[in-house]
Amino acid sequence: MKRPFATPTRLVLVAAPLALAGCAWFGSMMAPTSGMSFFVTSTGSGQGANFGGLAGADAHCQKLASAAGAGGRTWRAYLSTQPEGGMAAVNARDRIGTGPWMNAKGETIAASVAELHGTNRLTKQSATDERGQLVNGRGDTPNRHDILTGSQSDGTAFPAGDDRTCRNWTSSTTGNAMVGHHDRIGLNTSPPMLSWNTSHPSAGCSDAALASTGGAGLLYCFAAR
């Protein structure tokens, strides 16, 4: 007796679970881990270093985190501001919580504020964006390794004087901003060139000025809570 061919209904019943399993696997490969608490932004403000101040930079982090499925946390941009107009300085290290922080792949980049500003695990491979994708570094086209920080190596603000924050993140024209290299690579092997948060001042505050030294107005974002 010949074996009957599978009916369309049977094929659908067999194929459906396989399709769902495939979608689940693909989704797990693409979506960031629910524990993500650190990322480099995939995009800038579109206005150079002008984010409308710290609140605007935080909102940028929050928006990208939400789009990646991690909007349930309170996100802060790793940015310092300088004293100006009677306003006290703000230190980036004081804005980002206490850690530990993990990237979208579930890798711990630092367990505490002290470790973050000491021997952390930030490299081009671990400093991924909110989708878990690598961010272009030195040797890539375009180079995007200059990350805005406005901070000294210990995460504190610069004193009043030379602008290192593009007028506290409100200027896309005049001023300069301190940047760090997320890939820990520079023109040489001096400590500043290998620094993730204090490598050199930008050439200016516009998109074009930031791009001229290997930047795109990107930020480090940390989950404070």
Task: List the defining traits of the structure above.
two-stranded antiparallel ribbon; disordered N terminus; 23% helix; 225 residues
Task: Report what the structure shows.
By secondary structure, the chain is of the alpha+beta class. It has helices at 8-30, 54-67, 113-116, 166-169, 207-212; strands spanning 38-40, 75-77, 101-102, 108-110, 146-148, 178-181, 200-201, 215-223. Strands 1, 2, 5, 6, 7 and 8 form a six-stranded mixed β-sheet that branches. Strands 3-4 form a two-stranded antiparallel sheet. Strand 3 and strand 4 (108-110) form a beta hairpin. Residues 1-30 have low confidence and may be disordered.
